[in-house]
Design brief:
The complex is a heterodimer of chains A (556) and B (319).
Chain A: H1 2-40, H2 51-60, H3 63-69, E1 75-76, H4 98-107, E2 115-120, H5 125-140, E3 144-149, H6 154-158, E4 176-182, H7 186-190, H8 207-216, H9 222-239, E5 242-255, E6 258-259, E7 280-281, E8 290-296, H10 312-317, E9 322-324, E10 331-333, E11 336-341, E12 347-352, H11 366-376, H12 384-392, H13 396-400, E13 410-413, E14 416-420, H14 428-432, H15 440-443, E15 466-472, E16 476-481, E17 494-499, H16 507-512, E18 518-521, H17 524-531, E19 536-551
Parallel strand pairs in A: 2-3, 2-4, 8-17
Antiparallel strand pairs in A: 1-5, 4-19, 5-18, 5-19, 6-7, 9-10, 11-12, 12-14, 13-14, 15-16, 16-17
Helix pairs in contact in A: 2-4, 8-9
Chain B: H1 2-29, H2 41-45, H3 49-59, H4 65-77, H5 91-126, H6 131-145, H7 148-162, H8 179-213, H9 216-223, H10 228-258, H11 260-265, H12 271-280, H13 284-312, H14 314-318
Helix pairs in contact in B: 1-13, 5-6, 5-8, 5-10, 6-8, 7-8, 8-10, 9-10, 10-13, 12-13
Classes of the chains: A alpha+beta (556), B mainly alpha (319).
Chain lengths: 556, 319
């Protein structure tokens, strides 16, 4: 009896404990769900502010099928961050599931009569086809979209932030915007989601995301950066402020005649340690080593303030203070023989090499470095990486408002130049590895607001391993080794560049005709066309380039 | 004749002004301005609005439409063509750099099409209704119907890539500077540009020759006992060429503007390519000057046609 009573008590106690705890857990769960509904449900009158609608859009698009049929070679995306060392594991892929998409739309009370405005700005046929395909997939689950190509001033149509960054009424007309994001670092991917960011026309301010971004912006320690970016990716994956579509690769095209002699590959849009002076090529019939490439000037050599190394000429003609590896992470001195970063990350010093010269034979000085960054702070169009750097330099506010004539945070002593920062700029070394020092003697009197119009850019005196021998604008440009180059004379006798913009429409034609030894493209169509050509190598490189759909979640 | 010539020349001035105004208006109606195209939208969005405004002010883009137009016009009247907004290069320099390439291409195409089109047109007329005439008529129709870019790409594939006989494109190569050096570069674009025109010239020459063949003065020449060759080529051909000359005259300015596609396909560094990129970049001083030259070329051609017509056809002078 006692035994039975004891067992009964134990049973009752166990049940009480189990159900009691269950009830407690249920309460906790309810709270979590309520919180989640606050985040997941609509934030305002715009149904796209409801995460379920955004998830439905993601589930409705079959990216694997689109890639197979339309974009062979692309990689389906599950985040803004491509599949590299910065990517956190375990993200939801949102694989094609129209049933789930319909259910989510039903749960969100989606009005199937609503028509969404899907804008894009690329003019190529592939984009037009992609837009039509996305339109069809979304129509399948009951979301009507009308694609519309934007013309004219894209900035004012795409990226105007509302006055109130949290509850504000949208300052742009579109609902969905197809775009591409090419960045140097993770920061450029995610800082656009900060409350009140100048380009944030799409995502209402979110305290959790702001806190994560604030934390990552305050550290220059890679391990901490990775931890925070991982959390940001998880947030992004859960709430889908954007719909990631696919990662675009860059394709390097090289002829069999060319060898890099062990020098590595990287993101060809940026300056990296590619050691072109050690490249070699089979001599032609005359016994000369001539390399033919794209990226020559059309009307002028591109100044490096916006896209510092997107053209072959920019990379070859100029050296940087420091240079990074292909992944833009590990640095070594280039014009600087050594550099040091203070423990607090607020001071970076560079000691210049002794034997460095401009192509006219005059020495490159630490003062040229200071001049270049002061110039960058005055020009009208600069890369966000550079503006991010000079805005954190001590004394920038006074310099910008013309209270002072020089940036006090950049100091020169003998052959050492020191940068002092008011706050940490996590991408400082990357920025300093991209903007090349420019010669003050040639650009000192140029108008910063019209810097590209300076005659200097018709025939620039650079600092890199090759210098301009002859240029016929719109026709060709011939570069030859610079005899006094500090890392040794280039092996190739002559580099002939034909003129091309960022996207080269003549790449395939010239490659087929044997007129290309080195070039690169982001066009999948071109890369696929070149893969089967004898005598050519086409090598994909995973760069930070994500194609996505922005979702405008502000009330309209 | 002198009064007529002067009057025609004077008419060109207001027409040029009107045409330039319309082009300026067209540019004004396009969304954005030159500054909006200086960098990609993301970069622009992160830039200091005050700096952007300073650039606009410096380039004179903040002034009202009419003020900007009058500024441009008065500059042109003073011989100041201005500067490219994107590169800062003087427009005169751009035009002098690119116009010769386009004129070279257009003249080569015109020469090719005139010689070939006229010969084929006459052959077709003299062989009227026979197999040769039918084949040439069909070929002419094809020549006019198939898009130039298609013929251009096919010809590149065959002659430059597969056979390797001709260069893939461009006009100049390092170390190859004389006309003889660069002649191989000219062949494909000139032939392709000239093909569509050849078909037109051939059809005009054929119908004109047939028309002339029935005229009284041809019958008179035959009745005088002149040889068929003299009747056709000395008497008939000269008169039959009048409408063909008009066609060619009118095509010359069209060739300058219309070579845009060919310049793109063959990487020909002409003014057509420049015009296209200037329009894309809202580089209005450059667009205006190129358009201005095109309108001027059309009007001068039209004027010259009248003079040439009078020279070729004695009846025009008499009337």
């Amino acid at each position: 009896m006692k035994r039975t009573t004891g067992l009964l008590i134990i049973l009752i106690a166990t049940c009480a404990l189990v159900f009691g705890a269950g009830a407690k857990e249920q309460v906790t769960q309810t709270v979590q769900i309520e919180e989640e509904v606050t985040q997941m449900g609509p934030l305002n009158s715009n149904p796209l502010s409801d995460v379920r609608v955004r998830q439905a859009i993601a589930y409705a698009i079959d990216m694997d099928a689109i890639i197979e049929g339309l974009l062979p070679g692309a990689v389906a995306a599950d985040s803004l961050t491509p599949n590299n060392e910065w990517k956190v594991a375990g993200l939801e892929a949102y694989s094609y599931n129209p049933g789930k998409a319909k259910q989510l739309l039903k749960d969100a009370g989606w009005d199937s009569a609503k028509v969404l405005d899907l804008v894009y700005y690329y003019g190529d046929q592939q984009t037009v086809d992609l837009m039509a395909t996305v339109q069809a997939y979304l129509a399948d689950v009951g979301i009507k979209v009308v694609p519309r190509k934007l013309e004219g001033d894209l900035n004012s149509q795409l990226w105007v932030a509302p006055k109130d960054p949290v509850n504000g009424t949208s300052a742009v007309a579109w609902d969905l915007a197809y775009a591409g994001l090419a960045v140097v670092s993770q920061y450029e991917y995610y800082n656009r989601f900060l409350s009140g960011a100048a380009t944030n026309s799409h995502t209402p301010g979110n305290a959790e995301l702001d806190a994560l971004l604030d934390a990552v912006n305050k550290t220059n320690k890679v391990a901490e950066q990775k931890e925070y970016f991982g959390k940001i990716q998880q947030f992004e994956n859960k709430y889908l402020p954007i719909i990631p579509l696919y990662y675009q690769q860059l394709f390097v095209v090289e002829s069999d005649r060319l060898t890099r002699n062990g020098a590595g590959y990287g993101n060809e849009q940026y300056a990296y340690d590619w050691k072109i002076q050690t490249w070699d090529i089979k001599p032609n019939a005359d016994g000369r080593k001539v390399m033919k490439a794209n990226g020559g000037p059309l009307q002028f050599f591109e100044a490096p303030f916006v896209a510092p190394a997107i053209f072959t000429s920019q990379k070859v003609l100029f050296d940087r203070l420091i240079v990074a590896d292909g992944g833009l992470q590990n640095f070594r001195g280039q014009l600087a023989k050594e550099y040091s970063v203070s423990a607090d990350g607020l001071t970076i010093s560079f000691t210049m090499k002794d034997n460095i010269y401009w192509h006219d034979g005059s020495p490159i000085t630490a003062q040229d470095v200071k001049f270049t960054w002061e110039l960058a702070a005055k020009v009208s169009s600069v890369n966000v990486l550079f503006s991010g750097l000079f805005k954190t330099i001590v004394g920038y506010a006074d310099f910008n408002t013309k209270k002072t004539n020089e940036l006090s945070g950049i100091t020169v002593k003998d052959n050492t130049v020191t940068f002092k920062f008011a706050s940490i700029f996590p991408n400082a070394l990357v920025a300093l590895s991209q903007l090349p020092p420019l010669p003050q003697k040639y650009l000192g009197t140029a108008d910063p607001l019209q810097i590209q119009q300076s005659p200097y850019w018709q025939n620039p005196i650079g600092s890199g391993p090759y210098m301009v021998k002859e240029v016929r604008m719109n026709n060709y440009c011939v570069l030859v080794p610079f005899g006094k180059y500090h890392e040794g004379r280039g092996i190739i006798d002559e580099i002939q560049l034909y003129p091309s913009g960022e996207s080269d429409p003549n790449l395939v034609k010239n490659a087929l005709a044997g007129q290309l030894d080195y070039g690169w493209t982001k066009s999948l169509t071109d890369a696929n066309a070149l893969k089967s050509v004898a005598g050519l190598k086409v090598m994909p490189y995973d760069m930070n380039y994500t194609r996505l759909i922005y979702v405008n979640k502000f009330a309209k | 004749m002198l009064t007529y010539t002067i009057r025609r020349l004077l008419i060109i001035i207001p027409m040029l002004i009107l045409a330039s105004f319309l082009v300026f208006l067209g540019l004004e109606l396009m969304p954005g301005d030159a500054v909006s195209f200086m960098a990609d939208p993301e970069t622009l969005a992160n830039m200091d609005p005050a700096k952007l405004d300073a650039v606009r002010e410096q380039l004179g883009l903040n002034a009202p439409f009419l003020v900007r137009y009058l500024r441009w016009l008065s500059g042109v009247l003073k011989g100041d063509f201005g500067y490219s907004l994107t590169s800062g290069v003087p427009i005169k320099q751009i035009v002098f750099q690119t116009l010769p390439a386009t004129i070279e291409l257009s003249l080569a195409a015109l020469l090719f099409s005139t010689v070939l089109g006229t010969i084929l047109g006459i052959v077709s007329a003299l062989r009227r209704g026979r197999m040769t005439d039918n084949v040439l008529t069909v070929a002419g129709l094809l020549g006019m119907s198939v898009p130039q870019f298609f013929i251009g790409l096919v010809s590149l594939f065959v002659f430059a890539i597969n056979l390797g006989w001709l260069p893939i494109g461009g006009r100049l190569r390092p170390g190859y500077e004389s006309f003889i050096d660069r002649f191989p570069h000219l062949v494909l674009p000139a032939v392709v540009l000239g093909l569509a025109l050849t078909a037109g010239v051939m059809r005009y020459a054929r119908s004109s020759m047939l028309d002339v063949a029935n005229k009284d003065f041809i019958k008179t020449a035959r009745s005088k006992g002149l040889s068929e060759w003299r009747v056709n080529f000395i008497h008939g051909f000269r008169v039959a060429m009048t409408p063909v000359a008009i066609l060619l005259g009118l095509r010359l300015p069209t060739l300058i503007g219309g070579s845009v596609v060919i310049e793109q396909v063959f990487q020909w560094p002409g003014i057509g390519n420049e015009f296209l990129s200037a329009i894309r970049g809202q580089n209005y001083p450059l667009v205006m000057m190129i358009a201005f030259f095109m309108v001027l070329a059309t009007m001068v051609s039209s004027f010259l046609i009248d003079l040439v017509t009078a020279l070729l056809d004695p009846r025009v002078r008499l009337s």
